[in-house]
Amino acid sequence: MFDNMIIELNSVHKDAEYTGRVTRPNSAIVETFSAMASGNPVKSDKSAKEIMAIANRAAEGDPVAASELNTIRRFAIEPLMLEEIKLMSLFGNYKPIGFGESIEREVYTYAGDRSRFQAPNGDVVFPALQKSTYPVAPITISGGYEIDYRALGNGNAAKENEGMELVRRDIRNKAALYMVKKVYNAVKNATGVKYWSEGAGINQSDLDGVVNKVRRFGKTTILGDYATVSQINNFAGWSDGTHFGISDAAMEEIRKTGLLGMYKGSIVKEIENPYNMTEVSGGNFVPYLPAGLVFILPANQDSPVMSWTRGGLTSMTGTDVATGHLMTRFDLEIAVDIAKGREFEIGLMNDTNLSPAAGYAL
Questions:
Q1: Average pLDDT of the residues in 307-324
Q2: pLDDT band at 138 (very low <50, low <70, confident <90, very high)
């Protein structure tokens, strides 16, 4: 599941193949389109009439007009979406690069003999930092919505706002999903030292074991879906074997937020995990992210996780293969890498009651 990363289109018209007149994201026509879509007052009637005229030409099959509208949409969507994509830095470092740039990762590891306390013969043996560079392959994630040129040509842009919001949310959630899957697979499949636990439920002794090991890299933060991190609430009290108690402060915190904010010196934070409204399983919508994963991340540490976006949005128009509807599609290239040999810097737990033990295919 969670692998529907693209929208397949037939008879695609890529907007890059056409030269339209809209070239600036801060132009009056983009501002007017955003106002029309959000239902705000329009400052320029001239720009509004121009947008409707472009939509009517697009409805008649003019590819240049369709491209111009997509460019306007892209300029309206892109700033907010790229700002939200920066949330990928929650796990590590994030870097936007240009369309023509290649994605490469520089990793420094220790090589040679381990350091000795004293030089036995007038010399000290110590490890040296060794740099390696390797390419990181990006993937393309997509979002889109059905378009109605006739409605826009009549000045009705209500569906545009709904569609653009869908694209922003869809691409953002798919980017987060890809990052989570990459981190999960890197830690679980790492050879050598790794701090990892998997089983039914979040067990306190297992959690303490992972946190104690990762904490040596820095004070830790525990991140996960509400269904997993809320299980830590059960570890807040004390028991003498017969009676169970919990402090008033902890009870009040759980009452207000649903979560224990701190656990043995670690910050506990929820990762927002909305439903994917297009996927249903077991009588309910499926959340975008695996619900059973808990990440234990050290602070004050150069994270082994690095993410990139290459360029900005690209757009195209075509007929959706599955439904036959006319769609506008937006694509974004992203890449995620976990530094080879540094996977142990991330602690990971998987509650198999909520997420499969088999892993997540990329």
A1: 83
A2: very high
Q: What is the pLDDT of residue 244?
A: 64
- The per-residue pLDDT of the chain, averaged, comes to 83
Do residues 177 and 2 touch, judged by C-beta distance below 8 A? Answer: yes
Residue 221 pairs with which residues in a beta bridge? 267, 297
Q: What are phi and psi of 257, to 5 degrees?
A: -110, -15
Residues in the chain: 362
- 3-class secondary structure, 100: coil
Q: What is this structure's pTM? A: 0.82
Local confidence band at 289 (pLDDT 50, 70, 90 cut-offs)? confident
- Token pair listed for 103: 């994605």
Look at residues 231, 196, 199 and name the one whose alpha carbon lies nearest to residue 210: 196
Pure H helices in the chain: 28-38, 45-59, 63-85, 149-153, 158-188, 204-214, 226-229, 248-257
Crossing angle between the packed helical segments 63-85 and 45-59, to the nearest 10 degrees: 120
Q: Which residue has the tokens 């992972």?
A: 210
CA gap 68, 80 in Å, rounded: 20
With CA atoms as reference, report the closest residue to 63 among 18, 119, 113.
18
Q: Rounded CA gap, 213 and 222, in Å?
A: 13
Taking alpha carbons only, the member of 357, 352, 351, 348 closest to residue 304 is 348
Instruction: Decide: helix, strand or coil at residue 184.
Output: helix
Residue 5: pLDDT over 70? no
User: Could you tell me the two tokens for 125?
Assistant: 């043996």
Closest by alpha carbon to 126, among 110, 142, 118, 115? 115
Dist. CA 209–CA 347, nearest whole Å: 10
DSSP letter string over 207-255? HHHHHHHHGGGSSEEEEE-HHHHGGGGGGSSEE-SS-EE--HHHHHHHH
Which amino acid is present at 147? I
Cα–Cα dist 313/70, whole Å: 11
Token pair of 327, please? Answer: 């769609």
Check pLDDT > 70 for residue 113: no
Return the structure tokens found at 91: 């796990």
Q: For residues 331 and 7, what is the distance between their CA atoms, to the nearest angstrom?
A: 10
